[in-house]
Amino acid sequence: MRICLVTGQYPPQIGGVGHSAHRVANMLAGRGVDVHVVHFQKHPEPLPLDESHTSVDEDGIRVHRVKVFHEGLREDCAHSEAEVLTRYNREMFQALDHFQRQYDFDLLHGFFLYPAAFIAGMVARAHGKKCIASIRGNDVGKYVFDPLRLPFVRQALENADFVTSVATNLIELADRAVTPIAGKARTILNSIDRRKLRVTFKPDMPVRGLVIGTTGLFRYKKGLIYLFKALAQLDGELEYTLLLAGDFFKPEDREPHLQALEHLGLDRRTVITGRIPADEMANYLQLFDILVYPSLYSEGCPLSMMEAMAMQKAIIASRAGAIPELIRDHENGILVDPGDSAAIARAIREMAADESLRRRLAENAARTMDELSNERELQEWLSVYETVLERKLI
């Protein structure tokens, strides 16, 4: 039995999709499944197929990293976006078709609808193989509004023998707004590797008062401006430090956030750590009193928030993606509507005034993460694979 995971992110590249693909690949390989990963990487120069990829064994997984020409990366790009995507898609198909002919995968699994699941589905159909498409967040939450990429998303869903998602509302959106999939779809919530959440030291950070903030990769869709606005409303009420444990997703995400902090008068009480290695995140999570995840749209099943829950922290989060499937309002966290800074301010005020509430919510959050174990996720993936292949995997 040979499975190929196709993805546009994979470690050491940062990003939730890559971390999830890596986790699932390792869980399967750990149970004796022959797992390959094809990792597509955009490249500004065209390369011959035999020079475009490297293949290495990493912890029992065969990882194929493929540099795919994407002319849009070049400042002198002379073609339309449609022409750029046409060549990009064709070269990804050529590379994955090459690996399919070489290794004869029984099943191809695309992590993210475009390009991964779109290309995986095309190759699977061409070779008479099974295919799974996994909705991860931005693919449905963003690309369904993109006139160029929507057809690729639709075809990925239609070609798939089975569709998984990290959030039930993303399945519902795809099923109702893109193409019917409800009869072949299932939600599989993420899990986290709790072995990486060991406290090894206490960072020396200039924090005082309540430590309020968030973790992860910071960009517009994470809704941090609404956290900033909420804290500005509380100025003079609380002594607090705003701690942002992580870094900006792209350089262009940095300046708008810094400008907002300065405009709202929060820059002097804000600490931004920069990128934190995954095995050191627990050291920073221990500093927080309250964590806020005010995501707006395109949210999946946020690993950063799940890590905070596992670390027994008090959480405020928006009703986006899988967050309402993880957080039960006033049981293991507090839920707010996306984009509602006043509701975030009220929740912070409520938590700040009641340490016993914070403790209760935090303890229940940790219990929730005990239930969402790696073994639970592995068994759910095995069930899907075995349903699609109509036989036992291990």
What's the SSE blueprint?
Blueprint: E1 2-7, H1 16-30, E2 34-43, E3 53-58, E4 61-69, H2 81-103, E5 107-111, H3 113-127, E6 130-135, H4 138-141, H5 150-159, E7 162-165, H6 168-177, E8 185-187, E9 210-218, H7 224-233, E10 240-248, H8 251-263, E11 270-272, H9 281-285, E12 290-293, H10 303-310, E13 314-318, H11 323-326, E14 334-336, H12 341-353, H13 355-371, H14 374-389
Parallel strand pairs: 1-2, 1-5, 2-4, 5-6, 6-7, 7-8, 9-10, 9-12, 10-11, 12-13, 13-14
Antiparallel strand pairs: 3-4
Could you characterize what this model shows?
The protein is of the alpha/beta class. The protein is built from 14 helices and 14 strands. The chain folds into two domains: 2-191 and 374-389, Glycogen Phosphorylase B (Rossmann fold); 194-371, Rossmann fold, CATH 3.40.50.2000. 41% of the residues lie in helices and 21% in strands. The strands form two sheets. An eight-stranded mixed beta sheet has the order 3-4-2-1-5-6-7-8, with helices on both faces. The chain has a six-stranded parallel beta sheet with strand order 11-10-9-12-13-14. Helix 1 (16-30) links the parallel strand 1 and strand 2.
